[in-house]
From TrEMBL:
Protein name: Uridine 5'-monophosphate synthase
Keyword tags: Decarboxylase, Glycosyltransferase, Lyase, Multifunctional enzyme, Pyrimidine biosynthesis, Transferase
Residues of the full protein shown: 215 to 472 of 472
Residues the record lists as binding substrate: D38, K60, S151, Q210, G230, R231
Lyase is among the record's keywords: yes
Metabolic or biological pathway, per its Swiss-Prot or TrEMBL entry: Pyrimidine metabolism; UMP biosynthesis via de novo pathway; UMP from orotate: step 1/2; Pyrimidine metabolism; UMP biosynthesis via de novo pathway; UMP from orotate: step 2/2
UniProt source species: Cavenderia fasciculata
GO MF, one annotated term: orotate phosphoribosyltransferase activity
Active-site residues, as the UniProt record annotates them: D91 (for ompdecase activity), K93 (for ompdecase activity), D96 (for ompdecase activity)
Parts forming coiled coils: none
Gene name of the encoded protein: pyr56
Keyword Transmembrane assigned: no
Family: In the N-terminal section; belongs to the purine/pyrimidine phosphoribosyltransferase family. In the C-terminal section; belongs to the OMP decarboxylase family.
Length: 258
């Protein structure tokens, strides 16, 4: 059985600045709910962020699906994040060589390094990918989330690959905020934030491989820290009250394991 420290205690163990910020934020705001806002219009995303901002610790974007993306979208999203006190993480799942991801992170239309507090990374190309992020991360005080496991059926991020991803994180704890995973493995330690997608109350999965668990299960039984909820919230008729339900279950599951 895993022994769990509080987010407050883990503030002092974290070395990545975004991890420190997120542990503090979760402890003070009393929420470990992240929402995946996979909507394709700027106005819909901003309206949802405003509606649920008070309930969440993180808002996750897929910026490359936004049809009317512009700089004003980022400016407005950042001001909503500041007002409601949550961090923004861009789920870009970078996976190339260091030199290429540096371009992808710092350049192009989206300029992700200028605004994202965290970004997701697949370590399939090996640990040197992290060197491509170091300059950009430092300037913003941001962090990487390494995909250690995935929620989808038949995922190849398992076993020895997962162990290698944890090792990659530990060797680069300055740059790494945490892991995207389905469970806490002992090697992950207490200095990283563990985030788990594939969460929904009313569904077991979709017809494209997604698999769902409840907040209670992944936090209490599997030892993760943050739940990432997408369609369970943004497709509901009342996203705000649904977000409150996910927040309450995930926070009380967290409190009960302390
Ligand atoms: O293993 C993963 C990793 C991620 S980041 N499985 C996932 O589903 N995700 C992301 O979480 C996915 O890209 C989507 O944005 C979100 C889950 O959305 P939902 O609508 O299925 O809750």
């Amino acid at each position: 059985k895993l022994v769990h420290k509080s987010f407050g205690e883990r503030v002092t163990l974290a070395t990545n600045p975004a991890a420190v910020k997120l542990f503090k934020l979760m402890e003070s705001k009393k929420t470990n709910l992240a929402v995946a806002v996979d909507l394709v219009n700027k106005s819909e995303i901003l309206a949802l962020a405003e509606a649920i901002g008070s309930e969440i610790c993180c808002l996750k974007t897929h910026v490359d699906i936004v049809q009317d993306f512009d700089q004003d979208f980022i400016t407005q999203l950042q001001s909503i994040a500041a007002k409601h006190n949550f961090i923004i993480f861009e789920d870009r799942k970078f996976a190339d060589i260091g030199n290429t991801v540096k371009y992808q992170y710092e350049n192009g239309v989206y300029n992700i390094s200028k605004w994202a507090d965290a970004v997701t990374v697949h370590g399939v190309a090996g640990p040197a990918i992290i060197d491509g992020f170091r300059d950009g991360l430092k300037q913003k005080g941001a962090g990487l989330l390494i995909l250690a496991q995935m929620s989808s059926k038949g995922s190849l991020c398992v076993g020895e690959y997962t162990n290698q991803m944890i090792e990659m994180g530990k060797q680069n704890a300055d740059a790494v905020l945490g892991f995207i995973c389905q469970e806490k493995l002992e090697a992950m330690g207490d200095n990283f934030v563990l985030m788990t997608p594939g969460i929904q109350f009313n569904s077991k999965g979709d017809n494209m491989g997604q698999q769902y668990n409840t907040p209670d299960y992944v936090i209490k039984e599997k030892g993760t820290d943050v739940i990432i909820v997408g369609r369970g919230i943004y497709q509901s008729n009342d996203p705000k009250s649904e977000a409150i339900k996910y927040r309450q279950q995930s926070w009380s599951a967290y409190e009960s394991r302390l």
